[in-house]
Amino acid sequence: MDKLQKTVSSEGRFKNLRETLKNCNPPAVPYLGMYLTDLAFIEEGTPNFTEEGLVNFSKMRMISHIIREIRQFQQTCYRIDHQPKVTQYLLDKALIIDEDTLYELSLKIEPRLPA
Question: What GO molecular function annotation could you give as one example from this UniProt entry (predicted)?
């Protein structure tokens, strides 16, 4: 658990997670919050137009680099063998828990903090 927490830590702009993703072979499901943080940082910190009134292509390149990186993980297909037992379990209506019960279980695990 410690290794996983260290990997997904937001410390250093997700430095450990970026390194892990760079070295993994797709398919993988990256943490999109990291990319959304990057996009928000670019959007808020970089103007759309230069001082001369021209489109800021540097900003557009940064955005396209992030989108390209996300798409890299979407291009590789997952090879998942059909497991009838898993399908049967997921479709078993006897295991469905109603919304109120789920909410109560949620409160037991993570109680609401007083406002």
Answer: guanyl-nucleotide exchange factor activity
Which tokens hold the place of 36?
């959304």
Where are the chain's structural domains? 2-81
Indicate the pTM of the whole model.
0.66
The whole-number mean pLDDT for each consecutive block of 10 residues of the chain, a chain of 115 residues, reads 93 95 88 95 97 97 96 88 95 94 95 86
- Looking up tokens 């892990």, which residue turns up? 20
Main-chain phi, psi angles of 30, to 5 degrees: -75, 160
